[in-house]
Design a protein that fits this description.
Blueprint (H helix, E strand, L loop, with lengths): L22 H4 L8 E3 L7 E3 L4 E5 L22 H7 L6 E8 L5 E3 L4 E6 L2 E6 L5 H5 L15 E3 L5 E3 L9 E2 H7 L5 E6 L9 H18 L5 E5 L2 H10 L5 E5 L14 H11 L3 E5 H6 L2 H8 L3 E5 L6 H10 L3 E4 L2 H11 L7 H7 L15 H14 L3
Parallel strand pairs: 3-4, 3-16, 4-11, 11-12, 12-13, 13-14, 14-15, 15-16
Antiparallel strand pairs: 1-2, 4-5, 5-10, 6-7, 8-9
């Protein structure tokens, strides 16, 4: 589907959320854990005061063909996954939001839903379904009701059963606000098809539908928007100034027709031109191009990363040393434990200190210490540590 592309500057009257979204009610509230102040450069100054750990699609993404049982433990992008992640000391969960044909924001990663009926495989684009059609796939909330089979297409093109140890029904963005631990931040990825060029009126309709739910239900929950779609990133920043907007990029590990998506340098340009607050990059590209971190910092942008290397604690610690401000991870339990051990300062209860005073029994886990030579070596080595 080839649709006309437009420049954000050509879109009129985008300084306000539609009337039915309660923007004014929340215009002076800032997300917990971050600081935002508007300045004269159209970009709110933005500061993340601590190293963030973000649960990818909740408790972690599903890799159905993986031999690692952790990748098939809990249904991704589900209420069960979100609340399972909330049991650990993470700051945000990341999930993907699309909008159905009848303007309801739903949480689902893939562009297409696959199902089987009478031995035949069917595929339907999520955004071409109405809400009731979308919710009829997979486990059903109503006791005794059986949903349509839910299959998944793997990266190598195979269609497989979406079998996980703990399954759950599909859900809407509104349900996530209502049912997920309220102190847990939401990194809402605005999901669009990489192979579609979207018209401006479609992008506006989708973003307004999402913002309406956010402003009506977020309350004091920390919110962060992110997207790979450059025009959507620029538009959601123009439509609201309450929550930070990050531009997602693979930094050039995959090449797209839109040059804005093909390097960290281009991502910096998008952020500065559109008043965005930060970048979320594929972690391997950051390790391959560590000088980009300095450029991002000089531009006063925040930097988070995603990718498989973020499931390696040493790689996460390296990013902390490099000044990266947070990681999106699949192994929530393992990485939150590692971050607690390696990054957060150790604490000893005063009573414990008194009891163990002089007996040498108090044990604190020390942070790893690397020389400059070792840091340089690790920067070269880490991208090769895992080839998954």
């Amino acid at each position: 589907m080839a649709l006309k592309a437009v420049h954000v500057s050509d879109v009129p009257s985008l300084d306000q959320v539609p009337e039915n979204a309660s923007l004014t009610l929340f215009s002076s509230r800032f997300s917990t854990g971050v600081e935002m102040n508007n300045n004269n450069n159209n970009r709110a100054s933005f500061k993340i005061p601590k190293f963030l750990v973000v649960g990818h699609r909740g408790h972690g993404m599903n890799v159905l063909q993986s031999s690692d049982k952790r990748m098939k433990a809990i249904k991704e992008n589900s209420i069960v996954s979100f609340n399972s992640a909330a049991k650990y000391p993470i700051d945000y969960i990341e999930f993907d939001v699309q909008v159905t044909k009848d303007d309801c924001p739903v949480i689902f990663h893939d562009n297409f839903i696959f199902s089987e009926d009478n031995g035949s495989i069917f595929e339907k684009r999520v955004t071409e379904l109405c809400l009731s059609e979308f919710l009829c796939y997979g486990p059903q909330k109503e006791h005794g009701k059986v949903g349509k089979t839910l299959l998944r297409k793997t990266k190598d093109g195979k269609i497989v059963d979406w079998n996980v140890e703990t399954d759950d029904s599909l859900c809407t963005l509104q349900e996530a606000f209502q049912l997920v631990e309220p102190t847990l931040g939401f990194n809402i990825e605005l999901k669009f098809d990489d192979h579609v060029v979207y018209q401006q009126d479609y992008l506006i309709r989708v973003l307004q539908a999402i913002l309406k739910v956010v402003f009506e239900h977020a309350k004091d929950r920390p919110i962060l928007f992110s997207t790979f779609q450059p025009d959507a990133a620029l538009l959601v920043r123009k439509l609201q100034s309450v929550y930070p907007v990050f531009f997602l990029t693979n930094g050039g590990t995959e090449i797209f027709y839109d040059v804005r998506r093909n390097s960290l340098e281009e991502a910096i340009k998008v952020c500065l031109e559109g008043g965005l607050q930060g970048i979320v990059s594929e972690v391997k590209e950051v390790f391959r191009n560590p000088g980009a971190v300095t450029k991002i910092k000089e531009a006063k942008l925040s930097l988070l990363t995603y990718g498989k290397l973020n499931n390696v604690s040493e790689a996460v610690y390296m990013q902390h040393l490099m000044g990266i401000e947070g990681v999106i991870v699949d192994l929530v339990q393992e990485i939150t434990e590692a971050v607690s051990d390696m990054i957060k300062p150790p604490k000893v209860d005063e009573e414990d200190e008194k009891l163990s005073e002089g007996d040498g029994n108090t044990e604190l886990k020390a942070k790893p210490e690397f020389s400059q030579r070792e840091l340089s070596f690790l920067l070269k080595l880490i991208p090769e540590l895992i080839q998954l």
